[in-house]
User: Which sequence fits this backbone?
């Protein structure tokens, strides 16, 4: 199945992600500490989503 890894180097409280997978994928967030991150995922459409955090975060989003 299709997947995409998004890297957010600069800490932000909202990550805007264009994944172009043509679906509403699952999202797993990994923080630089290696811990799983938690944020609110909002699907804009089948190719775009945002992740909102309580404060600024950097890390990776594994999208599949």
Assistant:
């Amino acid at each position: 199945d299709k997947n995409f890894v998004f890297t957010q180097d600069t800490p932000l409280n909202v990550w805007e992600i264009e994944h172009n997978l043509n679906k509403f994928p699952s999202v797993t967030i990994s923080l630089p500490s290696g811990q799983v991150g938690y944020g609110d995922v909002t699907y804009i459409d089948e190719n775009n989503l945002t992740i909102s955090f309580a404060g600024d975060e950097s890390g990776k989003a594994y999208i599949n």
Q: What stands out?
A: The longest strand covers residues 48-63. Residues 31 and 59 are 4 Å apart (CA to CA). The two ends are 7 Å apart (CA to CA).
